Amino acid sequence: MDSWECPCGYVYDPEEGDYENGVEPGTAFEDIAADWVCPKCGAEKEYFYKV
Asked: Are 47 and 7 a contacting pair, CB within 8 Å?
């Protein structure tokens, strides 16, 4: 699975997920809820890019 980076530098790693915000490890970026935002800066998913 691909990692995705926010312009602020936060990298979403699907192997780690985002436990604090309800995203289980193993969740692909495409499968995260549409209203999920960057836990570091609050940017919406549309601003992330594949790394």
From this structure: yes
Radius of gyration of the chain (CA): 9
Q: Which residues contact 26 (CB under 8 A, 6 or more apart)?
A: 1, 14, 15, 17
Taking 50 as the pLDDT cut, the residues of the chain under it are none
- Is beta strand 4-5 parallel, antiparallel or unpaired with respect to 11-12? antiparallel
Q: What is the DSSP string of the chain?
A: ---EE-TTS-EE-TTT-BGGGTB-TT--GGGS-TT-B-TTT--BGGG-EE-
pTM of the model: 0.92
